[in-house]
Amino acid sequence: MLNAFWSCVTVPHWLSHSSSQRHPSSVPALPAGPEIPWPGDHMIALSDQGAPPAPACQSHAGLLCCRTPSDYIAAILELSSLVVRRQHRLLLHWDFLYYLTPDGQRFRRACDTVHRFTADVVQQRHQALSHLGREAWLKSKQGKTVDFIDILLLAKDEDGQDLSDEDIAAEADTFMFEGHDTTASGLSWVLYNLACHPEYQERCREEIKDLMRDKESEEIEWEDLSQMPFSTMCIKESLRLHPPVTAVSRRCTEDIKMPDGRVLPKGNVCLISIYGTHHNPAVWPEPQVYNPHRFDPENSKNQPPLAFMPFSAGPRNCIGQNFAMAEMKVVLALTLLRFAVGLDESRPVRRKPELILRSENGLWLHLEPLGPSHESRPPAPRS
Ligand code: HEM
User: Fold this and answer.
1) 317 Cα: distance to centroid of ligand 1 (angstroms)
2) What are φ and ψ of residue 340, in 5° steps?
3) Distance, CA 132 to ligand 1 centroid (Å)?
4) Whether the Cβ atoms of residue 19 and residue 370 lie closer than 8 Å to each other
5) Which position among 148, 166, 297, 342 has the lowest Cβ density within 10 Å, counted as fewest Cβ atoms?
6) Number of Cβ within a 10 Å radius of residue 196
7) Which residues form the signal peptide (predicted)?
8) What is the reported pLDDT for 68?
């Protein structure tokens, strides 16, 4: 399963080339092909040190053989902002009223775009499968990538029935939405936090250089990802300070008695603030400070189990969390091996919580290519 997803995601091609040849003044255009090239980089703008920062990047995330990824991403972004706007307007909680408003109509259109897109992909694959037949289809996949849609097309439910196209499209939608925007946000914020803290950035780089001492960076392996303790602490602290998903909701299936004696009645929908928990000074002293050492094994020993929950908790928590951590570690490692990441001080960052935690005007970072020997020159500390 993991391999299948992993193969869907490729790091941007400028990351997989020697840094000495690379001076990206902006993130390059989407390469053609049936893969997801970069898990949604609408938040982050990158540039050479010295050159003017690149304009806010176009989004690159696409699903499978997406030819117009921007439509899909634009629709996802729109949905994510419309949902939050609706939450703040009580009267618009009624579907009847909502769909009469311009926002409601935009919501419908964006939903249609997203659903049509996935449905088309699933339908095309289904037709190809029916055309070839199961055996020939499986044979044609031997030695090749079997992706998520393939797995679902071949899956059976508990009664031995194929999944319907609608079921498959619904699963694909969930994974696309939960999988790309969240990781893009997580990655963007960790690069931002390390740009704000060059001392931590440098320590991560040293750790990664040590790990990759005898191999090319393209050879980073699954096992290597568990040998990056400090970088992992930096990612976790970033997920605490800037959790990509700021809240989750649950409907009470029974009365729930709170520690102070009050009762949440059955049927109520509760909003659980991940952001609030991660910034609660009773749990996290000086919560606004980015301090990866909070996640030192020694320091986290006494952490309450739900103090840190970027991936939520309980039976419906994030099923992609290991994959997401792996993605972030790989991209972080390959980026820090090649570039010193600095802040563009002229563009202040203001958080913008939508369904995903974004920044109002993007996160603007300078990338300074490091020499072939990977001799790093960290950017100047923040004043
Ligand atoms: C930094 C990256 C990510 C973060 C912060 C994140 C966070 C979350 C959160 C908070 C939930 C909500 C669970 C709830 O309602 O309690 C969730 C659900 C989910 N996530 Fe992630 N996620 C990330 C990456 C991914 C990736 C990469 C995938 C897939 C490859 C994924 C797949 C899912 C799915 C399928 C669900 C729905 C689970 C269910 O309803 O049972 N997520 N995620």
Assistant:
1) 7
2) -90, 130
3) 34
4) yes
5) 297
6) 16
7) none
8) 52
